[in-house]
Amino acid sequence: MTDAVVGLSGKRKLTNHSVVLTFDDGYENFYQYAYPVLAKYNFPAMVYLLSAKIGGTADWFASDGRATPPMLTKEQILEMRRAGIDFGSHGINHYKLVELDRETAKREIVDSKVQLEDLMGEEVKDFCYPYGSHDPAVVEMARIAGYKSAVTCVRAAARPGMDLLQLPRKAISYGDDLIGCAWKLHLKHQPKEPIPNPS
Predict the structure, then answer these.
(1) Where are the domains of the chain?
(2) Tens of pLDDT along 114-146?
(3) DSSP 8-state class, residue 156
(4) Strand-pair partners of 48
(5) Which CATH number fits domain 2-186: 1.10.260.40, 3.20.20.370, 3.30.750.24, 3.40.50.720?
(6) Higher model confidence: residue 187 or residue 151?
(7) What are the pLDDT digits (tens) for 36-67?
(8) What is the rounded distance in angstroms from the CA atom of residue 1 to the CA atom of residue 46?
(9) Is 129 helix (H, G, I), strand (E, B) or coil?
């Protein structure tokens, strides 16, 4: 993500079809399934963690009666960080930030950064809005907190000149076949709604 930020800010030319692999929430199955494949091919990746859920479960699913899968442990995170996997913040819990009062939203954005920095002993520069939930006030909170990038759930390609704190992504989901993946990666570049330019 650091390289992408440099390229998207116009400080370095990105190669055609540059890709950043991002994974939300920090489920333990990332360690079990994705991490070994990434390590095999020496691919970097960004995992967005919920600071209060480390070593716990995805308990936000319980309200829907769904299973609550285990989350990454501190030991797994530190092992993967030493191996080159990057970690960003996804908040403390898994709340839709625009539905919170401003002080609670600010704590989710700021305190999660501090907690993860304490865990890993280094700056946490990247954020992911839970559920893609953001508005101008939330984006400004992320900016003031010191994040260098933040990703949304807008489905499109990120391009130079975009606000680095409102970056779109392309979701590759369970059940997508190779044709679907190819379509998303190579053709689905425009969002359904315009993405605001940085002011």
Answers:
(1) 2-186
(2) 999 999 999 999 999 999 999 999 999 999 999
(3) S
(4) 24, 88
(5) 3.20.20.370
(6) 151
(7) 999 999 999 999 999 999 999 999 999 888 99
(8) 7
(9) coil
With 0.85 as the threshold, say if the pTM is over it.
yes
Question: What's the rounded Cα separation, in Å, for the pair 66 and 182?
Answer: 31
Q: What is the DSSP string of 166-193?
A: SEEE----TT--HHHHHHHHHT--S-SS
Q: Is 178:34 a contact under the CB 8 Å cutoff?
A: no
Q: Is the pLDDT higher at 184 or at 107?
A: 107
The one-letter amino acid code at 57 reads T
Is residue 184's pLDDT more than 90?
Answer: no
The CA distances from residue 157 to 2, 46, 124, 153, 184, in Å, are 17, 17, 24, 11, 9
- Provide the edge-to-edge strand list for the sheet that holds 149-155: 22-25, 46-49, 86-89, 126-128, 149-155, 167-169
- CA distances for 43 relative to 17, 38, 94, 150, 151, angstroms: 15, 5, 27, 21, 20
